[in-house]
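>> received
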Amino acid sequence: MTQTADTATTLDVIDRFNEAFNRHDVEAIMALMTNDVVFENTSPRPDGERYEGQKSVRSFWEQFFSGTPSARFETEDMFAADDRCTIRWIYNWTDAEGKSGHVRGVDV
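>> returned
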């Protein structure tokens, strides 16, 4: 299957985001976001929390990485078509007591 320019660009942006996430590089993450970015976290339960705009989303990532210094995503599968992408991943961490954990998920 031949990729369109949009698909290749989408995959590149997602790869750069994942690499920045795994480095905990908030500057690089935010450089990929528009000024009107909207991020919806799955926590706290049951409905998560919504963050709107660069300032709010930046603050989320800064707090997230400071509280989870071992956070890392591993991509299991990624599908893209034009400017849309779906990723199946494993999120790994080690808590303050040294206990490791992981959860699997999907982003669209």
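>> Helices lie at 5-23, 26-31, 54-67.
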